């Protein structure tokens, strides 16, 4: 027998289930418990940048809205910096900027919305700049392991984005582009399955 | 410390997205293959939380929603460490939990199971790990409950656990099960996990050492997040 590698294995994921709101957004479950809920402040009022609202619907393979989904958001500030304590450039990140948020769908309509600032271009691997991205992580009943995707903006130059250009089927790249419906207002629908299925990533 | 790269998910260890015995996964699972991505800063960084975000009582579920007394049920402490695959504790990371009450009923407007709500139990807690990755909660043991999958499906007693780690790509929601629960191996959600050893990793053993005599029992549950790859070799992540 060779030596053991002695690594541990990652804990296996399980679905967040239908009552994820209790743990992560209890107001939506119909009760309040803690003074302060987390995830409502992606970009505080002092954070510079263009204020935007993003909304959308997650649909399943039959086209029906998924009404019990929870999304988490992770993004950079307007200059493309993440508020990440271990990064030496953290000190340069915008003030009053958390970069992380948590939203759920309306339990009746399936619509979700979050208010933030538009992120800046982020430095990607090997010095190749990425078009401004918002990372999304999606959990719900029926989803065994959180689904990662990212949203880019249709009104930015996405032509050289190193992630979008990895998608072999060119027509699928548009599934990651948020549509500008009004100034400062974007629509990003996510299709879990079927026609125009959103590109999800194993990161 | 610069953002580091992480070991890949082992996709043969993790549940796949499409598991027909869990009926809801059938329309909610992507049909096309995921795009495999080498992590960028967007995935290798993540949010941080501090003691300003939570209150010390947030991890005491037998107190944090008590109105007129203690909740009904088997009093338990459960504790453990958040580790990475290298066995290092993950410090200062947010752990959030939610669960049903002792009768298997959730305090959620969509839960219509006939077992009653406990007026002194909310079913939600959160805490930060300490400098060595340790966390603990006080609660009552949740009950099993039925769900509409096959007609006679019952979830084993479980506690949902949500963990962050230091990077967004470590984000994870497992469920904790209790040692020797016969429902574990009848549950299609549990068996979405293909490997029996992986299932065992979600089963918390009874741990009498930290049980408080004449007060409560204890269970131990370690959570493992993806490991951080040290830069043995050149790391060109940031283009330098």
Short key terms for the protein model shown above:
heterodimer, A: 203 residues, mainly beta, nine-stranded mixed sheet, 2 helices, 28% strand, globular, B: 240 residues, five-stranded mixed sheet, four-stranded mixed sheet
Overview of this protein structure:
- The complex is a heterodimer of chains A (203) and B (240).
- By secondary structure, chain A is mostly beta strands.
- Chain A is 4% helix and 28% strand.
- Chain A has two helices and twelve strands, in the order H-H-E-E-E-E-E-E-E-E-E-E-E-E.
- In chain A, strand 9 (177-182) and strand 10 form a beta hairpin.
- Chain A is globular, with a radius of gyration of 18 Å.
- Chain B is mainly beta and 240 residues long.
- Chain B contains two helices and 14 strands; from the N terminus they run ββαββββββββαββββ.
- Chain B has helices spanning 41-44, 196-200; strands at residues 5-6, 35-36, 75-84, 94-98, 124-128, 134-140, 145-147, 153-155, 158-163, 175-178, 203-204, 217-220, 223-225, 228-229.
- In chain B, strands 5-4-9-10-11 form a five-stranded mixed beta sheet, with no helix packed on it. In chain B, strands 3, 6, 12 and 13 form a four-stranded mixed beta sheet that branches. A two-stranded antiparallel sheet of chain B has the order 1-14.
- The mean pLDDT of chain B is 94.
- Classes of the chains: A mainly beta (203), B mainly beta (240).
- At the A-B interface, helix 1, strand 5, strand 7, strand 8 and strand 12 of A face strand 2, helix 1, strand 4, helix 2 and strand 13 of B.
- Strand 12 (201-202) of chain A pairs parallel with strand 2 of chain B, so a sheet runs across the interface.
The geometry of chain A reads as globular
Share of helical residues of chain B: under 10%
Total strand count of chain A, please?
12
Rg of chain B is 19 Å
In short:
The complex is a heterodimer of chains A (203) and B (240). Chain A has 203 residues and is mainly beta.
């Amino acid at each position: 027998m060779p030596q053991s590698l002695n690594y541990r294995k990652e804990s296996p994921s399980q679905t967040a289930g239908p009552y994820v709101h209790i743990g992560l957004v209890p107001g939506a479950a119909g009760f309040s418990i803690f003074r302060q809920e987390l995830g409502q402040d992606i970009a505080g009022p002092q954070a510079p940048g263009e204020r935007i609202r993003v909304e959308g619907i997650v649909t399943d393979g039959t086209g029906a809205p998924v009404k019990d989904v929870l999304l988490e958001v992770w993004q950079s500030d307007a200059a493309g910096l993440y508020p990440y304590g271990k990064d030496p450039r953290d000190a340069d990140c915008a003030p009053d900027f958390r970069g992380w948020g948590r939203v759920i769908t309306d339990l009746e309509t399936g619509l979700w919305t979050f208010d933030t600032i538009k992120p800046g271009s982020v430095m990607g691997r090997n010095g190749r700049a990425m078009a401004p991205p918002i990372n999304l992580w999606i959990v719900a009943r029926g989803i065994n392991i959180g689904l990662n995707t990212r949203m880019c903006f249709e009104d930015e130059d996405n032509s050289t984005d190193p992630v979008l250009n990895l998608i072999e089927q060119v027509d699928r790249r548009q599934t990651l582009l948020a549509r500008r419906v009004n100034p400062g207002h974007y629509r990003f629908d996510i299709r879990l399955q079927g026609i125009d299925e959103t590109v999800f990533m194993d990161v | 410390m610069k953002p580091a790269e992480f070991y890949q998910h082992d996709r043969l260890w993790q549940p796949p997205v499409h598991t027909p015995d869990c009926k809801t996964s059938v329309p909610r699972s992507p049909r096309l293959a995921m795009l495999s991505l080498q992590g960028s800063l967007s995935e290798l960084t993540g949010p941080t939380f501090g003691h300003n975000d939570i209150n010390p009582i947030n991890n005491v579920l037998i107190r944090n929603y008590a109105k007129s007394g203690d909740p009904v049920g088997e009093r338990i402490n459960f504790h453990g460490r958040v580790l990475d695959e290298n066995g290092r504790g993950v410090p200062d990371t947010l752990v959030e939990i939610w669960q049903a009450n002792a009768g298997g009923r959730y305090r959620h407007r969509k839960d219509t199971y006939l077992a009653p709500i406990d007026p002194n139990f909310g079913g939600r807690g959160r805490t930060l790990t300490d400098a060595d990755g340790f966390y603990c909660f006080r609660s009552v043991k949740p009950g099993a409950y039925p769900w509409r999958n096959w007609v006679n499906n019952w979830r084993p007693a479980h506690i949902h656990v949500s963990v962050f780690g230091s990077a967004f790509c470590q984000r994870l929601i497992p469920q904790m099960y209790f040692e020797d629960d016969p429902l574990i191996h009848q549950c299609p959600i549990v068996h979405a996990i293909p490997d029996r050893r992986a299932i065992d990793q979600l089963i918390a053993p009874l741990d009498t050492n930290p049980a408080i005599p004449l007060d409560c029992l204890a269970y131990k549950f370690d959570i493992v997040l993806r490991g951080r790859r040290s830069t043995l070799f050149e790391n060109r992540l940031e283009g330098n």
